[in-house]
Design brief:
Structural class of chain B: mainly alpha
Strand content of chain A: under 5%
Number of domains of chain B: 3
Largest sheet of chain A: none
CATH architecture of the largest domain in chain B: Up-down Bundle
CATH topology of the domain at 27-92 in chain A: Helix Hairpins
Largest sheet of chain B: none
Order of helices and strands of chain B: HHHHHHH
Radius of gyration of chain B: 21 Å
Helix content of chain B: over 70%
Shape of chain A: elongated
Oligomer: heterodimer
CATH architecture of the domain at 27-92 in chain A: Orthogonal Bundle
CATH class of the largest domain in chain B: Mainly Alpha
Number of helices of chain B: 7
Order of helices and strands of chain A: HHH
Number of strands of chain A: 0
Helix content of chain A: over 70%
Number of strands of chain B: 0
Largest interface: A-B, 73 and 91 residues
Strand content of chain B: under 5%
Number of helices of chain A: 3
CATH class of the domain at 27-92 in chain A: Mainly Alpha
CATH topology of the largest domain in chain B: Four Helix Bundle (Hemerythrin (Met), subunit A)
Structural class of chain A: mainly alpha
Chain lengths: ~100, ~180
């Protein structure tokens, strides 16, 4: 007997771990992966509610979240490549100027 | 049985997520993230969302993570340098944020459970046992009720592809 609380608690824990990663890490790629982790936790919440409210809409939303995450990954990684070429490092603390 | 599977998948997902945050090398973080996505796909499957589980493995653990690994390989000399965590400088802030998030989300989950809006156990609802099952319902909803957002998504992906190409090309021209 698994209740919805089990899944929601797990999603909350995963989201919190992702938040800690975004706040504490300095490597920009790791921070980006932690954002993906948070999106994944949200997806788990969506699927849980879709299941326990017996509505399909949650799964549709997850599909859209995944699409946006894919687009975000493409643009974000392109930005990371450009950033590392300009600054020569992946440290976000070095990216502290708006214009080179 | 399902409870054992759930706890196994949940432990795997949480462990992998912690490793994503703690690993010093970016490549190891990416590999841990793939494991985490795989465990989540298993949870999706357990929740009866077979199609989403397949998409999770193909798109997330497959396509997106391969993109990540390509970029990590591309920037390898830079990623060799271990960047120490920021945790030393703002320990209280980071931990407080984490605790606060967890508490807020746990409270929200608790309220939902208390509201009894949904059936309390996963064994209670067995739905959509037709020929297409879950996927048929999903397709009906996606291509009828959510057709416009679905089409707009294609524009978004087009813009994202163009944006990625433009961003990375600009630098070649200046060199």
């Amino acid at each position: 007997m698994i209740s919805a609380t089990h899944y929601l608690t797990l999603a909350a824990i995963l989201f919190a771990i992702g938040t800690v990663g975004v706040i504490t890490r300095r490597n920009v790629i790791t921070m980006f992966m932690c954002v993906e982790l948070m999106l994944n936790a949200v997806n788990l919440t969506f699927i849980t509610f879709s299941r326990f409210l017996d509505q399909i809409d949650g799964q549709i939303f997850v599909l859209f979240v995944m699409t946006v995450a894919a687009a975000e990954a493409a643009v974000g990684l392109a930005l990371i490549v450009v950033l590392s070429r300009h600054t020569g490092t992946l440290d976000v603390d070095q990216a502290n100027t708006m214009k080179w | 049985m399902t409870l054992i599977v759930f706890y196994g998948l949940a432990a795997t997902a949480v462990t992998a997520a912690i490793l994503v945050v703690l690993m010093s090398r970016v490549v190891y973080s990416a590999l841990a993230l793939i494991v985490c996505f795989g465990a989540t796909a298993g949870l999706f499957f357990q929740l009866g969302a077979q199609f989403i589980a397949a998409v999770q493995v193909i798109v997330y653990a497959g396509a997106i993570m391969v993109l990540f690994l390509f970029v990590i390989m591309l920037l390898d000399p830079a990623s060799e340098v271990f960047l120490p965590s920021r945790l030393k400088r703002v320990p209280v802030f980071a931990l407080a944020c984490a605790v606060l998030f967890t508490l807020v989300l746990l409270e929200a989950a608790d309220r939902w459970a208390a509201a009894q809006v949904f059936t309390d156990s996963i064994a209670g609802t067995e739905r959509s046992s037709g020929p297409g099952g879950e996927i048929e319902t999903l397709a009906h909803s996606l291509f009828r009720d959510y057709l416009l957002p679905f089409e707009v998504t294609s524009i978004l992906i087009l813009v994202a592809v163009l944006g990625a190409v433009v961003l990375t090309r600009q630098h070649h021209e200046t060199e």
